[in-house]
Specification:
Rossmann fold; 50% helix
Length: 151
């Protein structure tokens, strides 16, 4: 029986890169289930205080939200067969770097996705990855190859 691959898509939330990978692999008939962090920026930032109560100090506001989000991200990364981490052009994604490190610590196969201009800044992250891609299409091609064994 063919394996259903569980792929976690971490990182940048301001573009359609997740949809592009999903569409390509779906069109190719690959058996892939995708998961991701909460991509609604406001919900991700405010979940802690919305659920557990208001905080006057911004540190505790962020702390509550980060801990609730970590329940999701840690669980989904631990369950993933492959972790893809996207670093976008515009924003610094510290959470993406943390997710890449967490995946590497768990010995999860890691694909890093970023523009060439970030190569130097992400050299340690890239060194932990099994592949470094520059486009969602390359990630989809990697997934196609590792799932089917065909170029």
């Amino acid at each position: 029986m063919p394996k259903t691959w569980n792929v976690y898509l971490s990182g940048e939330i301001h573009s359609d890169w997740r949809d592009r990978i999903s569409e390509i692999t779906s069109n190719a008939g690959l058996d892939v289930v995708y998961s991701a962090p909460v991509t609604d920026h406001a919900a991700s930032d405010d979940c802690g205080v919305a659920i557990l109560g208001k905080e006057e100090d911004e540190f505790w506001h962020d702390h509550k939200g980060a801990k609730l989000n970590a329940i999701r991200t840690r669980t989904l990364i631990q369950d993933a067969d492959v972790v893809v981490v996207r670093f976008g052009e515009k924003y610094r994604q510290w959470n993406a770097a943390f997710d890449a490190g967490f995946a590497a610590a768990l010995a999860k196969p890691l694909i890093v996705l970023h523009p060439d201009e970030h190569r130097h800044a992400l050299k340690e992250v890239d060194a932990a990855a099994l592949a470094v891609a520059e486009s969602p299409e390359q990630v989809a091609e990697i997934l196609h190859y590792v799932i089917t064994g065909k170029l």
